[in-house]
Amino acid sequence: MRIALKEAEKSLLVDEVPVGAIIVKDGKIIARAHNLRETLKDATAHAEILAINEACRVLGGWRLIDCIMYVTLEPCPMCAGAIVNSRIKTLVFGASDPKSGACGSIYNIVNDERLNHRVEVIGGVLRQECGDILKNFFKNKRKRD
């Protein structure tokens, strides 16, 4: 999770919402990403989506079986759907998202029995640090705007 936090810090350098994600397979990081929605002018450029795209490229396929994703913020519905669709085995997230969290807070897409894949979820890892980077970003953003 500390490496995902380092990715989130990269978002700050380009004035993006600081969310970072990494994907691990067999104990090795195969992908890392941070939010780039504003930079890329792309609504789907969330850290999770970018990391999934990179991991698929590295592995040469769309099935990320036996992979673990670490992300600093609980994924939104779009990202939770991508996590399910890519067959990620385990999701580890830091801060919960009471406004759009789709891995237990508002929705639980990753464990919806109607879908063809379910994901093991471990939430609250480095919760304070993951939450603080977001709180500070929005606090500073409000001061500038």
UniProtKB/TrEMBL annotation:
Domain CMP/dCMP-type deaminase, chain residue ranges per copy: 1-122
Enzyme nomenclature, EC number: 3.5.4.33
UniProt cofactor note: Binds 1 zinc ion per subunit.
Active site: 48
InterPro entries: APOBEC/CMP_deaminase_Zn-bd, CMP_dCMP_dom, Cytidine_deaminase-like, MafB19-deam, tRNA_aden_deaminase
Cofactor: Zn(2+)
Highest rank taxon of the organism: Bacteria
Binding site for Zn(2+): 46, 76, 79
GO molecular function: tRNA-specific adenosine-34 deaminase activity; zinc ion binding
Keyword match Metal-binding: yes
BP GO terms, sorted: tRNA wobble adenosine to inosine editing
Catalytic activity: adenosine(34) in tRNA + H2O + H(+) = inosine(34) in tRNA + NH4(+)
Keywords: Hydrolase, Metal-binding, tRNA processing, Zinc
Family the entry assigns: Belongs to the cytidine and deoxycytidylate deaminase family. ADAT2 subfamily.
Record's function text: Catalyzes the deamination of adenosine to inosine at the wobble position 34 of tRNA(Arg2).
Assembly and oligomerization: Homodimer.
HAMAP family assigned: tRNA_aden_deaminase
Name of protein: tRNA-specific adenosine deaminase
Source organism of this protein record: Caloramator fervidus
The organism's taxonomic lineage, starting at the top: Bacteria, Bacillati, Bacillota, Clostridia, Eubacteriales
